[in-house]
Specification:
binds ligand ANZ; aminoacyl-tRNA deacylase activity; 4-stranded parallel beta sheet; single chain; binds zinc ion; cytoplasm; about 850 residues; 25 helices
Length: about 850
């Protein structure tokens, strides 16, 4: 018999597919309904890796599936090709970042060719092409016109080793994510996008995605925006005209306030301590110095021992008139709320720890034990942690007895009436810092003129192209290398013609990926970023597939940009990705793969050893797509065996196409049609592994039918073989195509429509069960052959004739032989 040779099969079909170009979406007159299936585009840091192999296998299952369901499917590919690794390679090895990047793209492309996802290559894009990034610049100008792009000086996370600004998420436990150096703060004037204007919509619109995005990602998005609701409360300060406002989520605990804490690095703290005694001022200065070196993450940690200094000042409790000492402590942040808190040690853990450390009073105002029947009375002296839960108010004057929620409402209302407070909202989200002092990115299209200030580059002068890297010192030093490109940076002001300088920062690469899904729709256009009509036709993306590492920022920025484009009238939707699938990671021996650990499995090696189909099947069959896959636990060789078994069926089937399937073996036909009926729901709910298991079953029963059943010539066997080939296209396109050709059809099987199940073959066939009472037949039941004995007995006992035959007699014995016989014996 012929051998299943994946390499020969790949070689045979690649050129045919090139010729046929079955995944083109060029035809504007195509009437089929549309689906947009998108994989997160790769960063070209080297060849593709196993993580890519998994993500693209899963994305391709979805794309191929919908095409076979009769949809016109757009499944594009491109490269996220700006970014630091190219620049670091350039610095380390003296290569040109451009050459490095595009060389890697070529390598990834050739791996993709063999892996053969169903891409429409005519829409390929690279974000580092001027044809792409000119539209980043255009977008920047649109945001600038709307006041959504602005510059400000502010303290930023600074890596002293990489000499660059870091986003918050690049700071891990106070250290640089890349090099591990201790991160410090530094003041720089930089560009921001005003994403905070969209904070509410970024939370509220998640509603639209509630059923189609992973819950984990929805809550990560929600938490990142960090909307909190509560009240602002004003506290009068002794010896000061202006009151201090604090933000609290727990106005119900107002009677439990026993001191006040302000952020040491707020202006308020310095102001308050000004008139204090010299010792206090000195202690404060030292404490401030220490605080400046700390990251927000450290400062907010509940694990940390509390520290702080007394400022020598007192606030006045708005309801009781009590004197409240004011402290400065690093657990209060200067840039959240008002940089000051009303401390309620009985009900807030950090306040509790602080009160314990500095022997400040603790007053319980919410009884959190009301629901417990035998709880010991609460006593501040014996508390070991704050009482954070729900409960009923105590020690709170007129509010005693109210539940927390009710008390929040009542106390907030009363504060508002007396002019001492108001409902308030706060967000953790900060504006998006997009400036990078690096070379390999999109130049910011602004010119700084001594006379005119900030002047946007006129749209018809875009793109502002990057100057060549040659001759520039790319090493990070806190200012962009572009600033040293004299010919490039010195220009005439577009407004007054006077001497001016280009802005030399480049954009965060998250800008590139915040809208690329729209660029695919008009990938070659020189006139527009994307065609509005095309966006109406294709967007938003129906299915987005990618790693959970992008669950926060990339998705947040793409969601933000979509809303901006919506407000500017360019798109008619507000969420870019209707459904999201996050695949797990590919591990090795339970660990993340990495060169340094020495457990790296190279994609190219696996591809050469097993071929594209076996890898795809292995990755899809390993488990639910969201779960991690341990490459040590899976068997690409097993997948190859399955594929060979499927493939051999097509060889063994001898008959010609166009058979009347209805003449075939009914048992096998039932199996085929049950598969046709079940697989779509499995695939649509991402149960790819189950769908493959079902396909494996079908292959097995078909093999049995050939070897031991009705034989290879039976029409049902041929129907099964065709069904296997069509379904296999979703998971293993080469094998499927080869089978399809052996069955006598023309390529491409990818364009063959999924067959509809015949409903008459789905109805479970029934058999007649006989019910005997004391040896006489008293009933006949129509039951499915797979009926469980207990169910059959239940039906038998419920039959009216049978009940009459039994009468009042006591049942002594019941014998059940499902599905044929139930025999009941009674006492005489
Ligand atoms: C009194 C109180 C009592 C509080 C209680 C909590 C529990 P979220 O949910 O994160 O918005 N807070 C306010 N401004 C702060 C700042 N700049 N730095 C650190 N903490 C600050 O948290 C709001 C709560 O965090 C506020 O409610 C305040 O403490 C504190 F039983 O006020 B609360
Ligand atoms: Zn000017």
């Amino acid at each position: 018999a012929e051998k299943y040779d994946f390499a020969a099969i790949q070689e045979a079909w690649l050129p045919v597919w090139d010729e046929l170009n079955p995944f083109s979406t060029d035809d504007a007159t195509d009437e089929r309904p549309r689906k947009y299936v998108l994989d997160m585009f790769p960063y070209p840091s080297g060849d593709l890796h196993m993580g890519h192999a998994e993500a693209f296998a899963l994305g391709d299952i979805v794309a191929r599936y919908w095409r076979q369901r009769g949809y016109n499917v757009l499944h594009p590919i491109g490269w996220d090709s700006f970014g630091l690794p190219a620049e670091n390679a350039a610095i380390k090895r003296g290569v040109d970042p451009r050459a490095w990047t595009y060389g890697n793209i070529e390598q990834q492309k050739s791996s993709f060719r063999i892996y053969a996802p169903s891409f429409d290559w005519s829409r390929e894009l690279h974000t580092s092409d001027p044809e792409y990034y000119r539209w980043n610049q255009w977008l920047f100008l649109k945001l600038y016109e709307k006041g959504l792009a602005y510059r400000k000086a502010s303290p930023v996370n600074w890596c002293p080793n990489d000499q660059t600004v870091l986003a918050n998420e690049q700071v891990v436990d106070g250290h640089c994510e890349r090099c591990g150096a201790l991160v410090t703060k530094r003041k720089l004037t930089q560009w921001y996008f005003r994403i905070t204007d969209y904070a509410d919509r970024l939370v509220d619109d998640l509603e639209q995605l509630a059923d189609t995005w992973p819950h984990k990602v929805l809550s990560m998005q929600r938490n990142w925006v960090g909307r909190s609701t509560g009240a602002d409360v004003e506290f009068h300060i002794e010896g000061r005209d202006d009151p201090v406002t604090v933000y609290t989520t727990r106005p119900d605990t107002l009677y439990g306030v026993t001191f006040m804490v302000v952020a040491p690095d707020s202006e308020l703290a310095s102001e308050l301590v000004e008139g204090a005694e010299p010792e206090l001022r000195e202690a404060f200065d030292a404490y401030l110095e220490k605080t400046r070196g700390e990251t927000d993450i450290d400062r907010l940690s509940t694990e940390r021992e509390k520290s702080g200094v007394f400022l020598g000042r007192y606030a006045v409790h708005p309801l009781t008139g009590e004197r409240l000492p004011i402290w400065a402590a690093d657990y209060v942040l200067a840039d959240y709320g008002h940089g000051a808190v009303m401390a309620v040690p009985a009900h807030d853990q950090r306040d509790f720890d602080f009160a314990k450390a500095f022997e400040l009073p603790i007053r319980i105002v919410v009884d959190t034990t009301v629901e417990e029947t035998d709880a010991a009375p609460l006593r501040a002296e014996t508390m070991t942690e704050a009482l954070a839960g729900d409960g009923v108010l105590v020690n709170s004057g007129p509010y005693d007895g109210l539940r927390k929620a009710e008390a929040i409402e009542k106390i907030t209302a009363s504060l508002r009436e007396s002019g001492l407070g108001a409902p308030a909202k706060n967000y953790r989200l900060r504006d998006w810092l997009i400036s990078r002092q690096r070379y390999w990115g999109t130049p910011i299209p602004i010119i700084h003129c001594e006379q005119c200030g900030e002047v946007p580059v006129p749209e018809d002068q875009l793109p502002v192209t990057l100057p060549p890297a040659e001759g520039l010192d790319l090493r990070p030093k806190g200012a962009s290398p572009l600033g040293a490109a004299d010919d490039w940076v010195n220009v005439a002001c577009p407004t007054c013609g006077g001497p001016a300088r280009r802005d030399s920062d480049t954009m965060d690469t998250f800008v590139d990926s915040s809208w690329y899904f729209l660029r695919y729709l008009s990938a070659t256009s020189d006139d527009v970023a994307f065609d509005v009509e095309e966006a109406k036709r294709w967007a938003p993306v129906d299915q987005y597939v990618g790693g959970v590492e992008h669950a926060i920022l990339h998705l947040l920025y793409a969601r933000f940009m979509t809303k901006v484009l919506h407000d500017l009238g360019y798109v008619d939707f507000v969420e870019p990705f209707t459904a999201l699938l996050n695949q797990g990671m590919v591990l090795m021996d339970g660990q993340k793969m990495s060169k340094s650990v020495g457990n790296l499995v190279e994609f190219a090696g696996e591809l050469a050893a097993y071929g594209a189909d076996a890898l795809r099947v292995t990755l899809a069959f390993a488990g639910p797509p969201e779960d991690d896959i341990d490459w040590a636990d899976v068997s690409p060789a097993g997948s190859s065996k399955f594929l060979a078994r499927a493939w051999r069926i097509a060889h063994d089937v001898s008959s010609e196409p166009d058979l009347e399937f209805s003449d075939g073996d009914v048992q096998l036909r039932r199996q085929v049609h049950r598969f046709l009926d079940d697989a779509p729901a499995l695939i649509e709910s991402y149960k790819f592994n189950v769908a493959i298991a079902r396909l494996m079953e079908l292959v097995n029963v078909t093999r049995k039918a050939i070897d031991a059943g009705p034989g290879a010539g039976d029409p049902a066997v041929r129907e099964a073989a065709e069904t296997i080939a069509i379904a296999l296209n979703v998971f293993a396109p080469y094998t499927a195509e080869d089978m399809w050709s052996h069955l006598g059809y023309e390529p491409a099987v990818a364009n063959v429509t999924w067959r509809e199940a015949d409903p008459t073959l789905l109805v479970e066939e029934e058999v007649t069960a006989v019910v005997q009472v004391n040896g006489k037949v008293r009933g006949r039941l129509q039951v499915p052959p797979s009926i469980a004995p207990e169910e059959l007995e239940r039906l038998a006992r419920a039959d009216a004739n049978v009940q009459r035959a039994i009468g009042d007699a006591e049942i002594r014995n019941v014998i059940v032989r499902a599905p044929k016989i139930v025999s009941i014996a009674t006492a005489k």
